[in-house]
Amino acid sequence: MNVDFTAGSLLVPAAWGLGFVLFSALNVMFLVWMERKVSADIQSRWGPMVRGYHGSMQLLADMVKLLIKEDILPAAADKKMFALAPFLVFIPALLALLVLPIGPGLIARDMGVGLVYYLAVPSLASIGIFVAGWSSGNKYSTLGGMRSAAQLISYEIPRSLSVLGVVMLAGTLSMMGIVNAQKSLWFIIPQILGFLVYYIASIAEVGRTPFDLPEGESELVNGYFTEYSGMRFSFFMMGEYVALLVACLMGAVLFLGGWRGPFGLLPQLGPVWLLLKAYALVYVAMVVRWTLPRYRIDQLLEISWKVLLPISLINVALTAAIVFVGGEWLRGLLG
Amino acid sequence: MAVRADDDLIAKLGDSIESSSSGEEGLVLTVKPDAVRAAVSALKDAGYEYLSYLTAIDRGEVFELVYRLCSLEPLRDGAIKARVPREDAKVGSITHLFKGALWQEREVYDLFGIVFTGHPNLTRILLPDDWVGHPLRKDYEDERLERRPNVY
Amino acid sequence: MEETKELTINMGPQHPSMHGVFRVEVVVDGELITEVHPSIGYLHRSFEKMVEARTYAQIVPITDRLDYVGSALNNVGYCLAVEKLAGIEVPERAQYLRVIAAELNRISSHLIALMASGLDAGALTILFLHLQPREKLLDIMEKLCGARLTYNYARIGGVSGDIPPGLADDINAFADDFLKTVEKLKRFFFGSRMFRQRAEGIGVLSREDALSYGASGSTLRASGVNFDVRKAQPYLVYDRIEFEVPVGSAGDSYERALLRVEEMRQSVFIIKRALEQIPEGRVIAEGVPRLLAPPPGEAYARIESPRGELGFFVVSDGTPYPYRLKVRSPAFSNLSTIEAIGPGCMIADFVITVGSLDPVFGEVDR
Q1: A248-265 in b/e burial notation, b at 16+ Cβ within 10 A?
Q2: Torsion of CA C87, C88, C91, C92, to 10 degrees
Q3: Does the structure show a pLDDT above 70 at C57?
Q4: Helix (H, G, I), strand (E, B) or coil at A160
Q5: How much is the mean pLDDT over chain C?
Q6: What is the DSSP code string of A228-260?
Q7: What digits encode the pLDDT tens for the residues A95-141?
Q8: What is the DSSP string of C200-252?
Q9: Whether the Cβ atoms of residue A142 and residue A198 lie closer than 8 Å to each other
Q10: How far apart are CA A4 and CA C262, in angstroms?
Q11: Domain containing A324: what range?
């Protein structure tokens, strides 16, 4: 492989990288604030109100607090792994942004196997979670890590299968190609089953209520990050929010037409449409989180294996049949 | 009906009963310490299926044990009392009859130092394991227990 | 194949969902609990010894600290025992006021228990939504007795003060409003499939075990025993007020929690009827000496606290100090059932099960 390491050729990737970091940092700030406001709304409270307009500066104060907190290394911890784990959780979520089509022709790297890359890379975070749980030297953390391993593996399968229908309809694995294939019809309409499975499995993968068992605070104190404090803790939190955002962004790309406005409205607003769609999905996830109780681990696995997996298999079979029988007609419909 | 049953009960326990009464407080039997188990068992058989509580009173020379048993539907009160000597305070455990006694006997042991023979796990329950003395005995001393009858 | 090993986990005394200072060592096989070793006493203040150095009147405010979630009921129970011993006749108006305070307090206590069961199941919103009615309730209690948590309302011979003018209307308005809250809670939380999946069939306490362990209150009634002190041995004026006692049959965590919701509804009816019936008159008996010295003897009075049969066993030797005061704590007996129903739960179920017993550690440890 011939890679050019001159300064000029590194400029573009560096700009993309910086962009991703800034993008995710800003979004995490907004998401935390949004989560507080959404939860406050559901619980008939105000939420943060003091710092800034409606508490919008609250997160800055929280960040300062987290930065000056003592960094605790438990005596029983495996020190190196303990220090490494937060990054293992945070970075994969960030890496997934690499194949996110932001606007027409606007993508960091339009890989031919973009979708496979997206399905593979963020799941690496589960290794980080498991490492965090195991290295903390705390039984709650260990249990949290184990739960997370079981949960992520079992939700990975329906999630991967759920997007298979999209691939069949689009006829490509490239993320750009998938968006382009949704010119006239968003995939949520023919792929409603796939979308639901994808969305539920994604919420589970991100580990939010009702699937937040790895950190289930009522039984496991705080699960795998019980022993983390200060900045290390905030990395886990950031990782979680970035993962949520990425899952919703990708959901928007795969099923909601990506950067395309509804009915081809205002095409110049591309990235804004994408964000709006993603945030709509995020909002639903937040409402779900603050409304429902938590599942138990066996129930959680049951939902994955006995409900989501059959549904996604049915969806794959149906889509395959439709594509096989009415391929020409479908291609005409999708333009 | 209830009164008849109580009479049968008294007859059944025979000599081990020191005194008995049955008034507003229901049936109250005072029995010899070594007959506590038998008495509780007899009451349980007679329909007193619920151990409300068991406790002790420090009466100087003796500890007076009080077991309050009831039948619930409808409510009928009964109590068994027994006096055990302060030195060598021992009484048979009733944990095989009422599981609720598991903790209650531990509490009495903890606070009075009365030993319940036959209890599967007779350890302190409310106080730390290394506590010295049994606080509810009248001779237990602590400067915080000074009486101040201030009338406001 | 490698052998699997059982894991011992220590939960508490500082665990987010142990409802106070409760420590329990659980042995788990994977997520399944095989053994439970509870340990209590972290909040022990030796109440029963402490009161031996206090006069009868001085003890009333200390009883507040037993079951700090339902303190008005503790006052009532204690005063009933002393009044029984000393033969004091309580004016009728005071009896009604005691009923009203006790039932208001029962509602706020059950609200706490329900909020906690929501929390245990991971539904945080239940907590926040029901802080509002509880806040209104505490405002009412504040107007009635001047305090929001430790009421010190019942006094030997009566209550500390009459109901302020206008408060009866406030209470009635609250009661009507609260019935809607209860309906909503029943429909949206207890009716929700997810909570049912989490709590039904979990921590099943059989009728035999419930009786054997001396459980009471909704823990006993959920197991199918119809025992409520208010009905079985009516004290105060409960025999003149019409209400129902809900009885379950399943004995699981869900039923224990559900019975509390129905009890709150019944408490609302009791309050409304008591407000209709309340006669005029004194609120504290005449001629109760400040330094009360009941005749030698003993008395046991029991009431229905939010957790079950709360009893005070008072022994007097004729001095102004009680010779012995035993508290029959319902939370203590209810909690002891955890040894029977804990094993077989999953860790997550165990948390819900402990919560459904609604222990208050001020009362368990005394």
Answers
A1: bbbbbbbbbbbbbbeeee
A2: -30
A3: yes
A4: helix
A5: 86
A6: --HHHHHHHHHHHHHHHHHHHHHHHHHHS-TTP
A7: 888 888 887 777 777 777 888 888 888 888 888 888 888 888 787 88
A8: TTSS---HHHHHHHT--THHHHHTT----HHHHS--TTGGGS-------SS-S
A9: no
A10: 74
A11: 12-334
Check whether A310 has a pLDDT greater than 70.
Answer: yes
Residue A4 domain flag: no
Task: Give the 3-state secondary structure percentages of chain A, helix then strand then coil, rounded to 5.
Answer: 75, 0, 25
Residue A145 is assigned to a structural domain of this protein: yes
CA nearest C17 in A: which residue? A218
Judge: C211–B72 Cβ closer than 8 Å, yes or no. yes
**For A127-152, b where at least 16 C-beta lie within 10 A, e where not — what string?**
bbbbbbbbbbebbbbbbbbbbbbbbb
Whether residue A218 and residue C346 make contact (CB cut-off 8 A), yes or no, is: no
**Alpha carbon distance B85, B33 (integer Å):** 9
Contact C122 A218 (CB under 8 A): yes
- Name every chain C residue with its beta carbon within 8 A of the beta carbon of B128: 41
How far is C239 from chain B, CA to nearest CA, in Å?
A: 15
pLDDT of residue A1: 43
* Burial classification of residue A57, based on how many CB atoms lie within 10 Å of its CB (0-12 exposed, 13-18 middle, 19 or more buried): middle
- Tell me whether residues C53 and B148 touch, CB distance under 8 A: yes
Q: How far apart are CA A311 and CA C245, in angstroms?
A: 46
CB A30 within 8 A of CB A52: no
Higher pLDDT, C118 or C143: C143
Please report the DSSP string for C185-201 in residue order: IIIIIIS-HHHHHHHTT
Separation of alpha carbons B136 and B113, rounded Å? 9
How many CB pairs (< 8 A) connect A and C? 82
Contacting subunits of A (3+ beta carbon pairs below 8 A): C
Q: Are A240 and A207 in contact (CB under 8 A)?
A: yes
Structure confidence at residue C52 (pLDDT): 85
The CA distance from C160 to C152, in Å, is 8
- For the CA atoms of chain C, what is the radius of gyration? 21
**Cis peptide bond upstream of B74, omega within 30:** yes
The fourth-level CATH superfamily of domain C46-337 is Cytochrome-c3 Hydrogenase, chain B (1.10.645.10)
Q: Which two tokens stand for residue A188?
A: 């949520």
Q: How far is CA B119 from CA B51, B104, C187, in A?
A: 16, 11, 46
Number of domains in chain A: 1
| Tokens 């009786």, residue located | C211
Cβ-contact C224, C248 below 8 angstroms: yes
B140: closest CA of chain C, how far (Å): 10
Which domains does chain B show, CATH number per domain? 2-137 (3.30.460.80)
Asked if residue A291 belongs to a domain, the reply is yes
- Whether there are 3 or more C-beta pairs closer than 8 Å between A and B is no
Does A45 sit within 8 Å of C119, measured CB to CB?
no
User: How many alpha carbons fall within 13 Å on the CB side of residue C261?
Assistant: 24
Would you call the peptide bond into C294 cis, given omega within 30 degrees of 0 as the criterion?
no
Q: Do the domain assignments include residue A327?
A: yes
Mean pLDDT of chain A: 81
CA distances from A321 to A102, A177, A193, C279 (A): 32, 22, 15, 80
Using a CB-CB cut-off of 8 Å, the residues of chain B touching C217 are: none
What does each C-alpha distance from C282 to A144, C89, C90, C96, C156 come to in angstroms? Answer: 61, 12, 9, 11, 14
C128 and A44 Cβ atoms separated by less than 8 Å: yes
Using the 8-state DSSP alphabet, how is residue A106 labeled? B
Cα(C366)–Cα(B104) distance, rounded to whole angstroms? 13
* A189-216 pLDDT, tens digit each: 778 888 888 888 888 888 777 777 666 6
Please give the Cα distance from C235 to C98 (Å, whole number).
Answer: 11
> Which pLDDT value is given to residue C278?
86
Residue A332: pLDDT band (50, 70, 90) is: low
